[in-house]
Each structure stands twice: as C-alpha cells, then as structure tokens.
C-alpha cells in the first residue's frame, strides 16, 4: 500500500529550500560507493543536515495519518538530495538495514518528501516497479509518499530544472507489510465505525485489534 | 473459548436414547486399551452406531452457530458413551490424530452432546482444567459443549443414575485456537454491525476477513 | 507483483467471441446475490461455459511464464463476463475461497483475460487500489493480467461499446505473496544466470531454491 | 491457563492496606478517559504509589512459581484500585501495549492481587468470559490470580463494603500463550521427574527444553 | 539428524541382488537428463522395479524405528542404482518435489539402502557435506541411512568392484527438520521414561506431545 | 553447518598460552554446579580473563568469514578451559540463554578455539552427535570450529598431555539455523557470481537478499 500525505507547511518547505540553497551538496556515491545506479547529490554539512532533518522528521512524526499507517518505531534522519539535469537513480533495492551514527535501523518503508514544484523540473519521477505494472509519483512541495522499501524503484533522469526532495527510511513495529496493512485497515474501520456499533461489539472489535497488536507488533 | 449450543430436537434426543436402550455397549477400553483413566461404556453395534452418529453429526453440522464457531472440515462420527454408578474418565488429553475407518482426522475441538436429564444422575460433570481454575459442564438433553481438545479434562465419577452422552472430535480449517477465535469474533462483529457501516468501510472489513481466511485457513 | 501475459492466439480469441455471441448471458448477481457493487452479465450456458473455459484455462496453463509466476495448483474455470454501457463492478474484495462443483479453491491470484479490442469500448478499465495510488489495466485481446486477489479492485463504468473479458481465480502452491514473488524472482535469476555461474555455485543456488520450495510450498 | 498464587505475607498485605488508607485515590478514568466501562478509584500519590508498587512487584517477582509460569521480562508497577458500593469495571479488553514513564510494555498476562478479605465486601468478583463459560475469582488477601490479558473480563458491581486489589500487567518472554503454557508444562515435568530418568534421557529432555527456549523466547 | 537402521533381512537382500542381476539397468541420466554430476546406472524394467521397490519399501515401513524417526506420509518407490568403476554422483541437492506416476511427493528425507558388501567395492562412499565437515557412509547389506534431503551430498567414485544400493525419498508429516527431530526426541524420552513418571506427570507429558503434533504435523 | 576458521595469529596464540600458564584455573563446576558431566578447569582470574577474552573475541570478530557465517549480534567473552589427563566433558546441551555480567545472550552458535598442538595431547576430541553419526574435531592452534549450540556434544577424555581451548557462545541475528545457513549460502553465491550477472539480474538478486534479511533477521 502506498500513502500520499501532506506533511509540511509552506513555511517549513521554504526553510528546507533555504537550507539547501546555502549548504554544500556532494556526490551521492559518498554513502553508496559501489552503487553505479546512483547519480545525484546529497546534502553534506553537519549543521544543515541536523536542522533540515529535524524539520522534516518532525513534520512526518506529527502526522497522525503517517503514524497510524506506518507504526513507526525508528526513522532515519531525512536527507535532502538533489537531481540536476542528467542525474538519475537507476532501479535499485533499498538496503534492509541502515547504519546510522549510534544505531542501525531496518528499512521497512521508504519515504520521499517533495520540496520543489513539479513544474520546476522535467523528468525526475519516482517510479516503482510492480512486475509489469508501474507507479509514478511527482508530488507537490510538502507532500510525501510512503512506500514499501522492498520494491525495485528508480528516479528517472531529470531533463530540465532541479529536483529537490528529502528521503528517509522507517522501521515499523510491524515488519510484515501484509500484517501492517491489515491492521491499519482494521484500525481505520474501527475508528470510523466504532461509534455506530453496540458497546459490546465495539469491545469485541477492540479485543481483536489488541490481540493482533500483541501477536504481530515488535516490542518497542 | 467454550461454546454451548442447543443442537438436537427433543425427537432426536428421544431417538438416540431409544437406540442406546436397545443396542449393546461394551467397555470403553476397547478403543483405548492402555488408558487406565477410562472407565465407561461405549456403543458397540455397527448399525446402531451408524444410525446414531448420522443423527448426532447431522444435528451438529446443521447448526449455523457451530459451523461459524468451529470452521469444521471433518467430524468423527459421534459415539454414544454411558457412565453407570462408579464409572468415570480420569484426567486425560485427547489424541492429536484419530484413526477412523478410511481416514485420519486431527482433533482440534472436542464436543460432548448431553442426552439425558441432569437430574437423572449425580456426578458425571465434564471438568476442564485450566491450571488452577476449572470449568464444569452438565447440560440439558440436546445441548452440546464444544471445547479445545488440548486441555486436560475428565468426567467425574457418577454416583447415582446414568450419564448418557455422545462425544465427537472436530478438525477445524483453522488449527490454531487463537486464530480461530479471533476470526470467529471478527466475523461475528462484521455480521452484526456490517449493516450499520458505510459500504466502503464494510468492503474494507470484508477484505480483512478474506485476507485472514487466506492466510490462516487450511485449504479444504 | 502484477504480470501481463500474452496467453491466447487470435484464433482462440475469435472462438471465445463466437461462443459469447451465440450463448445467453445473465445478470452477474446470480453468483453473488448480495453484492450490490456488481452490475454486469455472465455467460450462463453449460455447454458454452465448458467449451470457453477449457479454451481459456488451457491457454493460461500452457503459458510457461504464467506457471513460473503463479505456481498454480488449481484454477477456477474461467468465466466470460460482459459489460454494456452503464455497467460496472464497484470496488470489492474477492472471496478467499470459491465453491466450484466438486471442489473449493482458495483464490490467491485473480486473472482477467481481455477478449475484445480496447478501442471497441470506452471506460471498463480494471482499477486496482493500492492505498493512495492506483493501477489501471485495459489490455489487447488475448492478453491477461494476473494480480493478487487480496486487493480492492473495480471495473469502472463502461460508457460506450462492450467490454468482453474472462475472469478466473488461481490457487497457488505458495499462498503468501511475499514468498511467492521472492521465489519467482530467485528462480528467474537462476534460470537466466545459472549458465554463467561455476557448477559449484549453481549447485548451491539450486539447494537454496529447493530449500525454499520445501519450506514454503504446499504439497500438491 | 490460570494460576492462583500466594504471593504476599500478612505483614505486606497490612502495609499495603495502610498505604491505601492514608493516600488519596482518584477516579480511575484518569488513565482511561474514554473508557465508559471503568468505574473505580485508583491510588494517585507518587510516593504512596512507589512504596506500594515496590512491595507488590517485589512479592510477585520473588515467587518462583510466578517466574516459572509467566517467564516475566517486564512488569508494570502494580497499582492499587478500590471499588466502593456501586462501582464496577464492565467487560473490557486490556490494551496490548501500556505506556509507562520511560518504557512501553506489552501486556501478555494480567494479574490481580487481592488485598482485603472476601467477606468484607459483596460482589466485586473478577469474571473472565470464555465464550459461553465463565471463570470467577475472589481470593484471599495476599493471593494473586494471573490470567491472559487477551480475554474479555470484568469486575462485577460491588454491592457492599470495599474491594481493594492491586493490578499489574506482565510482558512475558514468550508472547504466545500456547507456547508459554507448553514450555511451562514441559519444564515442570522435567523438574519433577528428571531425577527418575536415566542421565542420557534427562540430557535429551534438556536439549528439547533449550531448543524450545531458543526458538520461542524473545531475547531479554 | 542421521539414522542408521538395519531394515532388510539377509533373504530380502539376496532377492534384491537377484533382481538386480537379471534385469536391465540404464544410464541414470534418464531421469535427470540435465544433471552432469550423475554418472551411474539405474534399474529400468517395470516388473523388476515393482518387485524390488515393494520389497525395499515394505522393509522400511515395517521398521518401527524408521516410522518413529521419519513420520513418513509418502515414500517414493525405492530404486536400485549401480555404480561400476569410474562411476560417481557428484555433489548435488535433491529436488524438493518429485513427480511419481499419479502423485508428487516432497522429499524431506533421503534414504540409501546398501545391498552389497562394503568389501566388494572400493570408493562409493556416500559423503554428506556439512560446510567444512563431512559425514561418510558405507554400510552393511540391508542397512539404511536416512538423512535430510536438503544437504549437498555425493557418491565418491567407485574405483573397484560394484556398488549396489537402493535410494528413496520420504515425505514427512513434519516438514521442518528442527521440529521433526525435537518431537522424535521428546517421544523417545516419553516412551523410555513414561513408566517411571507419576501418572499425572505422564498425562501432562502426553498433552505436550499431542499439542506439538497438532501444531506441527501436516494432516495426512 | 559447521565452519572451521583460522582466526588467530601465532603471536596471539602464544599470548593466550602465556596468560593460561601464569593465571589460576579452577574446577569448571563453578559455573555449572549441578552438571555432573563437566570435569575440566577454567580460567579464574579477572584480569587474565579480560585480557584473554579480548584477544580471542577480537580475533573472531575480525574474521570476515566468521561474521558472514554467524551474523553475530553478541558474543560471550571467550573463556579458556583446560583438560588434564582424565578430564572430559560428557554429552550435554548448551543452555539456550547465558547470563553474563550486565547482559543475557542467547547461544545460537558455540565456538571452540584450539590453543595448543593436537600432537601435545591424546583424546580431548570435540565430538558432536548427529543421531547415529558423529563429527569429531581436533584442530590446530589458532583454528576455531563454529557449530550449532543445539546439538548434543562432548569432549572425550584426555588420556595424555593437556588440552587448552577457549570456548564462546554467539547470539546470531538469525536464530533459525535453516534460515541462517540459507541466507549465508545465497550471500556467498551473490558475492562470488554477482560480477558475472547482468546488472538487472544482480539488482533482483540483491532485492531477494534484502527481503530475506528484513524478514528473518532480528533488529540489532
């Protein structure tokens, strides 16, 4: 399941762009030296990285929809990446585990937060391969798409303008996507329809939700 | 979970009693020769067994509540057993697999159908041990109790009169009791509250139910 | 994962259309009486159904790509369905288990085989909902799309012409989609690259493939 | 499985009662504001809470029987709750995860420690629903009942006197109750009968116990 | 786990040898045409195959030790194979599923029954690779070794005389080797020590054995 | 699977021997008081233990082969043990969980590092029982054998000289040996053959490896 969320205010987007405009970017190969598919730039200034990742991560985590959907237990600090004309990120699979300073997280879900206007660049779509079908995302500034990390995906070449996004990886309390989506759907139905149920049936519904959480969720 | 169901009509109960009254019973050890805990009698006439087991099995399988609760995929032919004063069936665990002529079934659930009046005998309660707690069943004629086969249970000594019951074993499409009960509860809530939900949410609820069936149920 | 396969020859497509043209169709509610979302027609003549389902099922099962992808263990006889202007099949979830005469199958994968030209009708796309994203299929005659049965999907209203397709449901030897897709991918890589590997490494690769089959596949 | 344990000395019970007598209680809704079923009072003084929970938690954890049965890995600080005439806690399901200051625990098992004499109040039984059967507990001061958190349970209305208990939630190293109970039983049999076995068979038995621990227990 | 069993009488071994001596053998590649590792001969006469496989399969299935160890649910008809000087079967992995006329079985365990004297040939050891360690088997006539099918194994070149064995594949009711071995060990301990236990503890032990069978064994 | 690794340099072996020669050893029963099978000596000096365990543990963890094979997440500090003539460690099963100061680890793999020359002592082989087969290890100084902790194993009596080894226990990120070995093999094949694959197929292979890591590995 794929979720598109409005996570950042215009002011926050503007702040991120400002940080991006004034801080150095380096070749994205720095964090994946052997990855020939990766041709982009990423933010490379400790202070700028900390400020922007707090802004971006904070926006994600305050989104109730995001929290309900992803059951996040850990979030890699979002990193701004930039694609200039000719740049792309060929089809690849995200690593299962990501080393952060002082921690390792499992990337169950990946997230791209779009930071400039889709009209400002050509190409640069995020394409996710589902066998013989394909999904394509090019969202408005401040919008994020959350997608399973275990798909083959790519950023198609930018042919004009500049693509500025932030990317992050989420470790979910429910690793298995089938289980996570099922519980998310059940929780949503219960939240939306619980008020229409008899108290007795709502209590039974909650029992089911709690049982599945016990059974499927990793302890935090 | 334990379910008490009214499964037989008075006429059917009367027929069973008539069969029991006119057919020979033998020592219950015949089917469990090494089981020292078992001290009862069981019906031992092919014709009488066939007639009574069809009556009893048919009554169970036509109970919608039973089918919804047990997800039955196979049923051992119910067998009438009789306890006279002094007889009992000490604490025991039901076998996981039961050899029938031409088939083997897994006993996930056990079922006792009571055939005479609780006032007609003293003792003879079905006692199920749950660690330091205990459940006790002594039901009306035509009522059945369905309980997990993997508990320690016993029939306490009959001290007066005669206890006539039929027992059977059920293989469920959902072996795991946790999963079976959870899906039963969810199905019940959906059946009772589906009409109050928006069509969209009811469809999502059905998706969840179908996903769990695919994931948990053995193919028939 | 979604797979688009060319499964039928032009001659076979023509035969199916001929059968459809000369046999009676009835309201699709006949097989799903309580489903208000379903507004289409389905073939309702025993002889025509048998001839067409053999043609369609045979075409699917002779496709090596289909067999490699789906690990099919049972196939519901494909049924031709027809959508005239105004008809549609609203968002729904396919049943987990489907009763056929003499058998029950689990629907792990669903398949739509397109039988007339996409230019012959407007609307009638198969839309599969993936949360906030959506896939849409409208294929050439003789092409089939195979998709997981546990998604919410719909056929959008036909506004002109006639949509003629056949639908079927597949029980896979590997119920879990994650495992099925993983093994399919591994088998593909081994088939395509095995000749380039050292014999020793190819043998180790085969050991892994066989171990996963033992571990994940249901016995046929 | 349900376990009844004598966990507190008379002196400890007296201390708890003294704390309860001299510290303020507040409406139990404070920790479950949306729970209409809950009508009781709970201790609401930081110092009193700390003293009593150390006393109560310490008593539980020093019980070898408790440790063997529950495989506890975390324990919520037990909280004293009080039911005056008219108070009750209607049927409810315990939350799967409980937020504590600085930690979150999964509630696999629930525990009620009784603190005053059953003769001192009427009603106030702990009732656990097992479908159509029911268990009821009203124990002596210092006794505790440990029961699965994933049952529907209630405290029936107190009609006279005062019910004083402490409740807590236990995260077990073995989440699945089937596995936990099985391993508990196997460990008990090995402890009681190991001395009668040949050294070789006892070693094999230990191998089985260790394998199941590796396989089923969460790492601490 | 590896089991060595005396399964055939001298008379049965003699009968097998006689059949082998008078029936045609063909190149073993006939059943594995693409397998370059396989250089041996196998029996290729329908009548001789039927007679010998009944003799060999019957001997295995009457061995109580074999049945207790393997939990067999299906057995491929054992086939006699012959290695003359220079012949061998290089390292390979047995197929997960084996097509038989009218059935497919999963090969969980493989079995080699030795039919001539180890002194009659040089080389021809069955070598099983366990990473950097290795097991080697060259047994007496009538003895069988049962080993997991999911290991890399080989028959080293015969350098003198003739190696005559029969091979077969077993589908177990418990696919997972960890679980199968654990339950086998527990059953053995219970069988050997049950008589020394108190009846109560023996009943609890049986409950555990039955629970694991329900949980782990495939229905026959 | 069993792995033999050259992990220590001659200099490191010499250092360990020196520590052993100058520090006190005590009866091995000190850490397993009830274990009658254990008759050996173990190092019992805090400083000597710290120095030697850092040397030994560091050597193991710098071995890429060890890390690839064991997926280690925690390592008990290796402890030197000594067997003089007449000493042995009878057949035993390693504990599933091992209490260390400040931590508990699960012993998935056991490891013996040999520290003196096999010619310097008679007997003292590490024997691992695999049912009716047996593996025996007596390695060169600096070599280690890594084996599953859930086997019955023993050290046969030393009859001459002195056996000096270090032993340790490893908690793996992948508890299940079947899964650990499968992923190890797949990773090895990918590492050795990846360069010969098309980039597209290598990417698909990596997707499979990452999916299995997500699915099977415990989060660190």
Mean pLDDT of chain A: 95
Strand runs of chain A, count = 17
Query: Which structural class do you get from the secondary structure elements of chain A?
Result: alpha+beta
Order of helices and strands of chain A: EHEEEHHEEEEEEEEEEEEEHH
Helix share, percent of chain A: 25-40%
* Separation of the first and last Cα atoms of chain A: 23 Å
| Quaternary structure | homohexamer
Largest interface by residue count? A-B, 19 and 19 residues
Tell me about this structure.
6 copies of one chain form a homohexamer. By secondary structure, chain A is of the alpha+beta class. Chain A has helices at 10-22, 46-62, 64-70, 177-193, 199-216, and strands at 3-6, 25-27, 38-39, 41-43, 72-75, 79-83, 88-92, 97-100, 103-106, 109-114, 121-123, 126-130, 133-137, 143-148, 152-155, 158-161, 163-172. In chain A, strand 12 (126-130) and strand 13 (133-137) form a beta hairpin. The interface between A and B is medium-sized, with 19 and 19 residues.
Write a brief structural summary.
Six copies of one chain form a homohexamer. Chain A is α+β, with helices and mostly antiparallel strands and 220 residues long.
């Amino acid at each position: 399941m794929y979720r598109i969320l409005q996570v950042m205010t215009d002011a926050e987007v503007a702040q991120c762009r400002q940080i991006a405009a004034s801080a150095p970017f380096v070749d994205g190969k720095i964090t994946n030296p052997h990855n020939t598919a990766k041709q982009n730039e990423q933010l490379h200034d400790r202070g700028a990285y900390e400020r922007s990742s707090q802004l971006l991560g904070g926006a994600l985590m305050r989104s109730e929809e995001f929290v309900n959907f992803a059951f996040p237990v850990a979030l890699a600090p979002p990193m701004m990446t930039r694609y200039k004309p000719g740049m792309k990120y060929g089809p690849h699979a995200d690593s299962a585990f990501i080393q952060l300073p002082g921690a390792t997280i499992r990337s169950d879900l990946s997230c791209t937060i779009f930071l400039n206007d889709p009209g400002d660049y050509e190409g640069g779509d995020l394409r996710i391969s589902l066998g013989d079908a394909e999904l394509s995302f090019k969202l408005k500034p401040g919008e994020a798409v959350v997608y399973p990390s275990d798909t083959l995906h790519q950023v198609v070449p930018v042919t004009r303008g500049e693509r500025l996004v932030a990317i992050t990886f989420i470790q979910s309390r429910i690793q298995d996507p089938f289980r996570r989506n099922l519980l998310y759907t059940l929780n949503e139905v219960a939240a939306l329809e619980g008020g229409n149920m008899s108290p007795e049936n709502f209590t039974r519904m909650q029992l089911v939700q709690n049982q599945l959480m016990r059974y499927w969720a990793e302890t935090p």
